[in-house]
Amino acid sequence: MSEEKREVEIKIRELGVTFRDNSGNDVQALTGVNLEIYKGEFIALLGPSGCGKTTLLRSVADLQQPTTGDIHIQGQTPKEIRLQQKFGFVFQQPVLLDWRKVKKNIELPMEIMGYSKEERSKRADEMLEMVGLKEFANHYPRQLSGGMQQRANIARAFSLDPYVLLMDEPFSALDEFTKEKLYEDLLKAWRATNKTILFVTHNIQEAVFLSDRVCVLSPHPGRLSAVVDIDLPRPRTLEVKDTPHFTELVTKVRNSFEGGSV
Amino acid sequence: MKSKAFSQKILKILPAIVWTIILVGAWEIGATVVANHKRTPENILPHLYQIIAAIFSIKKVANGMTATQIVLTSAQATLLRALLGFALGALLGFVFALIMKMSGVVEKLIFPYLMLIQLIPVLGLAPIVLSITGDINKSRVLIAAILSFYPVATNTLAGFKSVEKEKYDLMYIYAAKKWMLYSKVLIPASIPYFFTGLKIAAPMAVTASILVDTLQGDGGLGCMLSQSLKHAMSIYVFWLIVLFSAFVGVFSGKVMGWLEMLVSPWKRTVNAKKKK
Fold this sequence. Notes:
Strand content of chain A: 15-25%
Radius of gyration of chain B: 24 Å
Oligomer: heterodimer
Helix content of chain A: 25-40%
CATH architecture of the largest domain in chain A: 3-Layer(aba) Sandwich
Largest sheet of chain B: 2 strands, antiparallel
CATH superfamily of the largest domain in chain B: MetI-like
Number of domains of chain A: 2
CATH class of the largest domain in chain B: Mainly Alpha
Distance between the termini of chain B: 15 Å
Number of strands of chain A: 9
CATH architecture of the largest domain in chain B: Orthogonal Bundle
Number of strands of chain B: 2
Distance between the termini of chain A: 36 Å
């Protein structure tokens, strides 16, 4: 295998984040996280609420300052990468601007970056095509269903051609049918663009189906308790979910949680 | 399905119809009772048809003008000042909200005391403003501005504060400059709230200007209002002004609603989630 030749994109070393809660006590959200993520890899950060998975994602995105340890992306700090606008972030909620048409919403990061009008329009059209929203370019967000809004959210994150795509439980508010359709579309977009993806979820099946590796986080204190390789063949379709190997992997991931009661 | 939609529509306008009938009925009973006891040559509370007839009457009531002409001439003086004051107050309200949003210190210094403006009765404030400016027109503008300021400022500020944390995160992730956060997110997000403020402020500005008029016999709706009550001229002038002022008040709020729809095309669309 060409494992050794693979380029490390994100290097997380001894990462710890401590919050102070309202009563003045220090709460360890994350402690001692070490992780290397390869370029083009699809990583799932899986865990129950309170395990620090979102904190880990936010630390990579420079939305959260680590208390200890450090993160490097292509040798640079998260802040440096952020200032170059090389992150794409997909929120749990669509976070679209109501007063902008779908296409204009997708153009927002490019506007901030200072792309020319023609370039923005051309790129936004490509993104709309990729997520299957071409006919809805001139609709306003509130005219779209939840699933379509989330597609727009994803298209916006891809629009700047980021190094890393950070996704914070993007499908958790959607119904099962919409979700499965979006799984396939996300994988298609990922394959086409070869982005490194960090995908936060609390859904074991989702994590196993989508990712190359599942990073299992456990709470109290939040820590990385296991990394499970997902060796399901790609490209994956939903039928993979019916194979015995998929079930084995789900069980393996489930058993790797620490703390028992989860 | 169709009949259901129809009955829903009826149900929607039914209260308005019922209220109209009740009010017209009460008015007419009142008018009849007052007419039976009248001590003046003209009925103080005329029948509605008489008021409507007065709108189209060509009878010269005073100064060689018909009742409608008097109303429209004096309305010009008052409403232009009301509009000017309203615009001024709205602009200042928006700017203050923006400054309070940008600086937490300024907000803490100003916001709690803004309410004081609202607590001072206009009746008391108006004569003071008049004696300071010494000019009825300036006073009209100023009072209308002062009254418009508060609802616009507070609502706009609420609009800025309504922006969710995720939208800040979004702009942060893409390393947006502060002015971009304002121009692309915060200010557009505040617009519906700004208009809520305008809808409240517009009728208030009209009312305030009319009130200021009554302080000085120098034309204007309010001035005519008090003169007509003192029987210096036909009582119909009084009722026409009352009717006209009420109409302008309601209309001014409506105009703000239309203006909002004009500048916010997305508001005219149907919400997909509510459609179901």
